[in-house]
Amino acid sequence: MYQLALTIKDYKEDIHLLEEVKKSNPTNTSWEVLCNEIVEKLLKKKINNEQKFSSWEIYRSIMNQIEPDECQKLCQNNELMDLISQMLQEKNKDVVYSKNIITLKEQGHSFLFSDKLALWKGDITKLGVDAIVNAANNQLLGCFVPHHLCIDNAIHTFAGPQLRRDCSIIMNKQGFEEPTGYAKVTRAYNLPSKYVIHTVGPIVESQLKESHCNLLRSSYINCLNIADDLHLESIAFSCISTGLFGFPQNVASMIAIETVINWLYENPFTSIKKIIFDVFSDNDLQIYTKNVIEFDKTCNENDIIIPPRINTSIMVTPTEIQQNELNRVIKFFKNATHIIIGAGAGLSVDAGLSFMDTKLFSEMGYPLFEYGINSLYQTMGFEDFKTENQKWGFFAVMADYMRYKEVNEHEFDTYKKLLDLLKKYNKNYFVKTTNVDGLFERSGYDMNKFFNPQGDFKYIQCSTPCSQDVYLFKPYMDKIFENINPLTFEVPDSCIPKCPRCGKEMTQNLRSDEFFVEKPHMVMAPLFTKYVEDAIKNGKVLFIEFGVGGNTPIHIRIPFESWTIQGENTMLVRINLDKSFLQSKVPHTKYSAFHTTGKQFVEWLWNAMK
Fold first, then answer.
1. Which one of 303, 330, 358 terminates a domain?
2. What is the pTM for the complete model shown?
3. Positions at the binding site for Zn(2+)
4. Which residues are annotated as a binding site?
């Protein structure tokens, strides 16, 4: 099986990420005396008075240069590790806590989310926050240069050797260097923060390029995603990629502020309450101070209306009005002879396969960060890959994630519970969906009662096309995964699929342009239409529409309304998070709308009818 960059779930057990760090008991001994004792133990000899005077520099030099294997051995010496912990905590007593850092709104700023952002000048290793962000290198093992002034060196020094040990465990398991724009997280050990999030920012060696800016945005996005996944409330960013990495400070500052604001807008239910931009120099402070004023002008909170949104991660009981509507639907469901399901993108989102999800995309698409792509939605129609080799590597990984990768049982719940209800009440059903992820098939639905006019990730086709044939992608994917470069997704020329008929380039079998091969999918069209027309003529029909938007209304939205109006014993149930899509021409007596997720709606049905 191919290896991709690790996510939290892949390494959290290896480094005991969620276990609380046990701090050493306070001591009355000064850190200098402790440091002398530690250095003697490390050097395995007594040190003279001159060495005692510089014992901290000696200790730091040893810690900077220690190799991961030796670091692992050192961490097994409990007595010495306890001394190191006591010394570092004694030396780093002057902690500044997040609650004591005022927000930019409290300083008089009025841009969007200024109440969650703060600017602070000082040593990031002294911040008492949930997580600090380390500007790391691609090896993710820290800086090996003694007394180097980079933030990576400082964080590893004051966290203690456990940090390098954990980073080494992660990187050994990953097997290749960390992608730029990606991020990992470890415990912070002897730092006053709980976690350290390590991200690799772009290196600007000469002229600043758009790809550098895109990668820097991804670093901020992925750090915030990790903090949100861990349900953290505060995070402090160092100045990623500036300094030795050569990124112009002013541009980096603008990208940092803009990206954080955009992320907060897209994640309204995040646990994060405070985001601190930590600067170390007066120059950086002046740059950030100047730039936040610009956001007061261009992104003022008084000029922006944020629409109300529903927290879809929380299951709730229906309101009285919803319950009354639900009772109507349940009654019709039980008496219906036919159930016709129409599923749009919203139902895939309920299963954790959202085209807008930056967290999902970061797992499968990190080589595309440099193109400014952070979600699957942004890949639609994208063709500007560096090479065809990289394009097919990405296509294979994406198809594997979206079509074959094992999905957690709870993510299948919505599909399976709906199917269980159909079976329990012995309902004749048919499914039409514009989704291409195969979740209905993977959940056990009858494929003889399934119509998908938009294609399927499991097929590829001739790009010309020279015929109406489609081909299973899986055999090609298996070959690609044997040879893929996990850092870039480049594959050898021999792995690029060619049309078996004409030898030309192939492409995904997804409806995106006039070259889409629809014939294999459209064979179900007349069967579906006949099924619906017969059902309307001879039975009692319930149409259930899940998460259908406005991109392709001709497939589900318009015909479902038309059929409901046309039939005498019909009812349309429409479930959507967007209220604008709940409007309908269907008379109220034949129509019911739910402003919620498909997952929540099925859960309500399940609880009432199981």
1. 303
2. 0.93
3. 462, 466, 499, 502
4. 462, 466, 499, 502
